[in-house]
Design brief:
heterodimer; A: 200 residues; mainly alpha; 2 domains; 9 helices; 74% helix; B: 224 residues; alpha/beta; Rossmann fold; 8 helices; 36% helix
């Protein structure tokens, strides 16, 4: 689940500024596409892996970052093997694995609030064009916050429809999900007003 | 002191509150009524979430129609479903949400968060994902997010409806310990039995306004 990946710690990465970590992620994310050699990418990937224990995270946490994309890595490798050769396959999967594992590391060592504060600072120059950084930051935080809430609503609706024998009907899931999501959005807007959110 | 003078609220030509005039100065005020009787609309007026179609609503020195933002800091509001009130993914971030709007220094924000988390036994959950809390803990977090703003009044809109008995009792104790003036909308009549005053709503009007010993039996009769 996206929300709440941060794990408390006192490593150098934990202490590093959120903006710096996001910048490093952006640089790594673009930099890997400039590297055409799989051995260099392998060294980079191993370096990212080494940062996990250096930040206080064991192999289980590292595995949890990689496991969801294993099928994608296998697919990309197979496609490259078919279209080119195994070296090209390694280049593609090492790039993707390095980006995903470093993104995971950034999330694990950075509080959402610090990440959002960095985002707000980065967006300050856009204020002159009418962009409100606080509103954008709140929108991001709410996306993270409400993914599990909407998922929970989806589970409840699916259970209710199963109980009525409608488990194969997409419409029976989607329609109440949209209605409840819109109702939730109304209630959340009220709650934000009630909690004195004042971005102006 | 809360004062309403000839307050009417209409939605799509339907009169939800009909010419309400009253003053509230008691420390604990309960609001009951059937669904759709106007009780939630009534409390939303007190926090400026709802604006009256006609009439005036005053809370201390604030006019609800003109001072909406200031009023919302003066009158906290705890909703029925804490999942809709918690807007940040981590506990401490959510409590800090309102405080940031006050432009308080970081030290003061941290101090207030520590204090409120300790008060409700949530200190160990400071860096915990808010969606993983239990129902009762979520409601206590929602209450924390409101109390940390140090409001003068706190409104609870059916705060125990979604809770099991243990969590309902925790929330009841949390409300009982508050120094603030509390206004509670509830179908849980035991929750408001010890209050100073109870308003019974029916069809947008106040059908009974008395101490719980009189108002609650009257409400039971009306619902029979």
């Amino acid at each position: 689940m996206i929300a709440g990946l941060y794990i408390d710690g006192n490593s150098a990465l934990h202490r590093a500024a959120a903006g710096l970590k996001v910048l490093a992620l952006v640089l790594l994310g673009t930099g890997v596409f400039l590297i055409p050699d799989w051995p260099v990418l392998a060294v980079l990937l191993v370096t990212v892996f080494i940062l996990y224990p250096a930040s206080g995270f064991g192999p289980r946490i590292l595995w949890a970052q990689i496991r969801p994309i294993l099928w994608l890595l296998a697919l990309f490798f197979a496609v490259q093997l078919w279209l080119n050769d195994w070296q090209a396959g390694l280049v593609v999967i090492f790039r993707l694995a390095a980006i995903v594992s470093f993104a995971g590391l950034v999330t694990l060592t950075t509080r959402t609030s610090d990440m959002l504060a960095a985002l707000e600072r980065a967006m300050k120059p856009l204020a002159r064009f009418g962009v409100n950084p606080e509103k954008v930051s709140l929108a991001f935080s709410m996306v993270l916050r409400f993914i599990p809430v909407i998922a929970q609503i989806g589970h409840e609706i699916r259970d209710a429809q199963r109980a009525r024998g409608l488990d194969k009907s997409v419409l029976a899931l989607v329609v109440p999900l949209i209605i409840r999501t819109l109702k939730t959005a109304d209630d959340v807007a009220d709650a934000i007003d009630a909690r004195s959110f004042d971005p102006d | 002191m809360i004062t309403l003078e000839n307050v009417t609220v209409e939605f799509d030509q339907r009169r939800v509150l009909d010419d309400i005039s009253l003053s509230l100065s008691e420390k604990r005020i309960g609001i009951v009524g059937a669904n759709g009787s106007g009780k939630s609309t009534f409390v939303r007026l007190l926090n400026g979430l709802q604006v009256a179609s006609s009439g005036t609503v005053r809370v201390d020195d604030f006019d609800a129609a003109k001072d909406g933002r200031k009023l919302r800091r003066h009158v906290g509001f705890v909703f029925q479903n804490p999942d809709n009130q918690i807007v940040y993914p981590v506990v401490e971030e959510d409590i800090a949400f309102g405080l940031k709007a006050l432009k308080l220094p970081k030290d003061e924000i941290d101090r207030r968060i520590d204090e409120v988390l300790a008060r409700y036994g949530l200190s160990e959950f400071r860096n915990h994902p808010s969606h993983l809390l239990s129902g009762g803990q979520k409601q206590l977090l929602a209450i924390s997010g409101v109390l940390v703003m140090a409001p003068r009044y706190v409104i609870f809109d059916e705060p125990t409806t979604l809770l099991d008995l243990r969590n309902r009792n925790r929330v009841e104790r949390a409300i009982a310990e508050l120094d603030q003036t509390v206004i509670t909308v509830s179908h849980d009549l035991d929750l408001i039995a010890g209050y100073d005053r109870v308003l019974v709503f029916e069809n947008g009007r106040i059908a009974c306004d008395d101490v719980p010993a009189i108002a609650i039996p009257r409400y039971r009769e009306m619902m029979a």
